[in-house]
Amino acid sequence: MTSIAAVVERAPVSPGADPRARENVLLLLLITPAIVVFSAFWLLPIARLVALGASGEAGIETYLSVLTNGRYASSLLQTLALSGLVTLTTLAIAVISGLFLVRQDFFGRSALVAVMTLPLAFPGVVIGLMVIMLGGRQGIVGDVSVALFGVKTVFAYNMVGLFVGYVYFSIPRVILTVMAAAEKLDIQLEEAARSLGATPPMVFRDVILPGLQPALISSGAICFATSMGAFGTAFTLNAGASVLPMLIYTEFTLNANIAVAAALSVVLGLITWAVLALARSFAGSGVSAAG
Amino acid sequence: MRHGIGFWLQLGFTLLVSAFLMVPIGMSILAGFTENYFRGPSSGLTTRWIVEVWERYGDNIFLSLGIAASCLVVTILIGVPAAYVLAKRQSRLSRMFEELIILPVAIPGLATALALVMLYGTFGGFRSSWTFVLVGHVLYTLPFMVRSVLAVLSSIDLRTLEEGAASLGAGFWTRFWTIVLPNAGSGILAGSLMVTTLSIGEFNLTLLLTTPFTQTIPVGLAVAYTNARLELGSAYTVLFFAMIIPLLVAMQIWGNPSRTSTKRKRRALEKVVSP
Amino acid sequence: MIRKMDSSPIRLRNCSKTYGDGTIAVGPVDIEIAAGETVVILGPSGCGKTTTLRMMAGLEMPDPGGHVLFGADDVTRLPIEKRNVGMVFQSYALFPNLDVLENIAYGLRVRGIGLAERSARAREMMGMMRLEPFAERRIDQLSGGQKQRVALARALAIQPRALLLDEALTALDAKLRDTLRTEIDVLLRRLGITTVYVTHDQEEAMSLGDRIIVMDRGKIVQIGSPREIYHRPGCRFVAEFVGTMNRLPGEVRDGQFVTKSGRIPCRHLDPDCREVMFRPESVTIADPAECDLTGRVAATFFLGDRTRLVVDGIGDQPVIVESESAGEFVVDQIVHLKVRSAAVHAF
User: Fold this and answer.
1) Which among B7, B85, B109 has CB closest to A27?
2) With contacts defined as CB-CB under 8 Å, which chain A residues touch C86?
3) Domain ABC transporter, which positions (chain C) (predicted)?
4) Which residue of C has its CA nearest to A185?
5) What is the ipTM of this complex?
6) Domains located in chain C, CATH noted
7) pLDDT in tens, B203-247
């Protein structure tokens, strides 16, 4: 009997100690390292970068030069156009093949899925080599075109090479998203449309595409943002100042034009962030995980 | 099962896309083992390029592995507790933090790298050491660790599990070690695979952070592609594939923790029910 | 406002369905449904009832040798989009990207009917289903019952030759289900449309069908009116699946079924019958003098209009009795039961 009384006495009864408040302190303790690392090594440097962009001779107008300076503006436009084209192409490929791989069951299907998603997380530089292998001076496309037409086709070192490389790079991640969305499509919706007389193309237009739309918007936005900032492929293919990241790199390393490099980086960052934020407001969550 | 024309068209298209993805990989592997790629495989197969890569760039490989391992340790140490906090307290503040830590991935790596160089570039010892590269990699990979752990913790009924444990007398830290961490296991595994793979392959952010003495594999690859013969660059790529492809395959197997969530839910329940 | 619909009789002839992995979902079945008739296919999950419905719809093709006929037309090879059947799915399958009006008008749109006419016809359907206030609503803003009515309106808007409903009320809560069931029943009868309704809920089957087809493990085990199915089950499966049945072991001796706690006079039983079945409402509380069985009350449930008793000590399992008598029963009380001998089944 005495022991029970002792236990009861030791039970926490002090009204001041809210267990939830104590837990909050512990939780704060757990998240602090992440906050410190992130603030010190990202928030602070980025804030400084934004300030640096306005620190050159032109001051705040350095930011405007991105639009007014012909070389910067055309590079920005080219990067936008390239990324847009890459996004549309990749989405089309991913819808056709992704739907096929989800809907059909045949021998070798899982091997094909593995093949299509294998280059996920290949770095851009390696993609550059892949493009050289396809369209470089000793590339397979050149060999084939010599055999067929007697003319050697080399596309690795211009915008076509970048386009091919970025599509290569984007296919695995977009197809994964599209396949995940296609698996969740409600088959009964398609059956309902068919029972109402819709032909297969109508079912595709009225049921499947609307069903995939959030996935298409989110993976398209990620694809676009990644293409905007992609650097390794352009670096390997030595694409000069054709795309914005290469321009930033040359301004910084060759011309030591720090203010311009900073301003261009900030603008590039803002564009990609805006695209992702916009897509998310349309398609809901899940848009942020680029990479 | 008989297939219509649509099936064959889609199959043909998909095979074509697969070829587009696979043929250059095969070609680069072949080039890495070819005596003279310009003359083709008939010039003879050799491993001498691989040996030369090892002699010239071996340091890069060990450095990259070291950075990836350190990056993994750091992201687990700071990322897993952070994910737990985010799973427990879903407030405006925690959602904002979740959004913020994704930014180094969302905006181009070059911008982050430039920012780091501008602010910390003058700290000589830090700037020239491999930890400078590590910092960049941690920023870039942290959101992936946090997200995969968070995904798992949100898919199980964490609150009930913890309340169950608390009712049996487990305090905060006991719950964290015996309930939270074991149940986050598959998320930590998926996140770890992702972090390691991304760290080994990171280039966009890395290039500006490295010095000639702290070159990682992708930076070394870029240098080899631009300065060395195609065979040497390809041989280096072969070595890179040998490291990264097993990781990618592992990711395809264990990289999607949400698929096994029902199984885990049951296991999680059993753990609480049985003493 | 409500026109009679021009609907077809449906016939399945020798239809079976074997899947790729060799499992037989439906053995060869023959079903005839008259024009304008409402037929319910009833059975437990996995009995092949949905597959049967999908063969009628054109979503599944029967194995070679099977034929699906709508009236005189053999539609076996016709895909669903050419069959002109209205279908209502368990999940309603309403298109989330379209609003209520657009959903109902969808079938008319794919038939190339102009906007003005299809809106008018869709609005007419909405009037019939009392959906006018919701025309511009998004699907996720509707309650379960409203979704159900939209799905029905959408299926009827194309003036189908037959209406096929797959567990259409299962997702609703019990009270709403009752209301809608009545509503649908009245509507279908006024429209005079051939209707096939698949369900695993025997109560629903009883109240909706002109005829019930009971299926078990891919085969039809009984076809009949709700009364026949309930009062004259053709086999042990139907007896146990539809309604509540008491089972009592024993043996036949001198025209009586002898159990360990009494005997039931039963002239029609087979001499080597070892078990009889009867429904709770076929049992009455009787005087000790003229009773058949004696047991002890284990539990009582007051149901308002009647009392359900669970009685122990009669067979292996407790016997369920539904008594309309106003008397109060207490647990452990000894009760004397009389079983209406005409309502005793044996299989």
Assistant:
1) B85
2) 195
3) 10-242
4) C93
5) 0.83
6) 10-241 (3.40.50.300), 246-343 (2.40.50.140)
7) 988 988 888 888 889 998 888 888 878 888 888 899 898 888 888
